[in-house]
């Protein structure tokens, strides 16, 4: 009798084992295709149509009685699970793989729970968050560089003395107070540094990479105005070609400085960071003319060679290179 019962149990479990259906995965011991009444060749639209028909049929609100409602709710959940699996292309492929490879138990569990556990984050949200973080860091770093530049100028005697001369009246009024409101020496020193910093910020035009940051410089804004930037670039070069190549109009100051900067291979901020005297020297030497620039560049290179030749460290380096040659790394080392 016991043998007959065991055989009967094996016969009942045999179909699910052969089909590769596992409890706790996908639709459990039920075939998701059979649950929806479709086949593996059915399209997404056919699967969606079958799901909507069965969902209306087994919706718990359409059944009366506790037992009928409970059975309908269980079937409704199974139908919803089957639809969620078969409507997604990747999960459907994993399910088909399980049906085709019933012996790969561990692979089925891995594929199933990998998709369940893996967070489903919209790529657009990730891009927005990354751009926002980069923009915030960029803006904050810009303020740090600007603050470092102001602190540096406040320590340079030339700019510090100029700031003291400009704010002398304000310094005398705030620091040399009498009576109860008289400031301590520590407070006077802090107030003096604050006034000097304020004057330098107002009078000093910091250029280059240490310039005062603005929201126009951050990545987010640059991306938003990118179409306008590209259009402006095209229009600017078109006007340049028309005015100075076709019509042969004379260069203005800005156009001359643009040519000098291009010959020097400098960025806008780097070029603007130079002293005004240096800029005026470029204009005085007419370096916007290619021939003048080439001659001036050759002179600068020759002077640099002479300075290096007189530099003790450079002489020592040349002697070392002459005696030992460039360093080499071999497998024997």
From TrEMBL:
Cleaved signal peptide residues: 1-20
Residue intervals of the J domain? 31-99
Among the GO biological process terms of this entry, one is: protein folding
Spans traversing the lipid bilayer = 123-141
Subcellular localization: Membrane
Record protein name field: GL16552
Question: Could you tell me the keywords of this UniProt record?
Answer: Chaperone, Membrane, Signal, Transmembrane, Transmembrane helix
Q: One Pfam annotation, family name?
A: DnaJ
Q: Which organism is it from?
A: Drosophila persimilis (Fruit fly)
Family, according to the entry, reads as follows: Belongs to the DNAJC25 family.
Q: Name one GO cellular component term.
A: endoplasmic reticulum membrane
**Topological type in the membrane:** Multi-pass membrane protein
Q: Which CDD domains does this UniProt record tie to the protein? A: DnaJ
